[in-house]
Amino acid sequence: MELKDFLAIAQIIIAITLIVLVLMQVRGTGFGAALGGQDYSFRTRRGVARSLHRLTIVTIVLFLAVSAWSVVAG
Known about the structure:
Number of helices: 3
Structural class: mainly alpha
Number of domains: 1
Radius of gyration: 16 Å
Strand content: under 5%
Order of helices and strands: HHH
């Protein structure tokens, strides 16, 4: 298995993880909010939501790093 194969597999796994993390962050928003409607509740991130948000940011950075490495290596 070459480096480019490993990087492609890593990109797919990280992308799926990122999709799951983003979908887990969607809270009880209605269909209107999903289409661009406004949500008038203002909340701060606490507990699990804060950890999930930070994990999402770390995953995004990891995805970008692997993508950049894939371009350089490929």
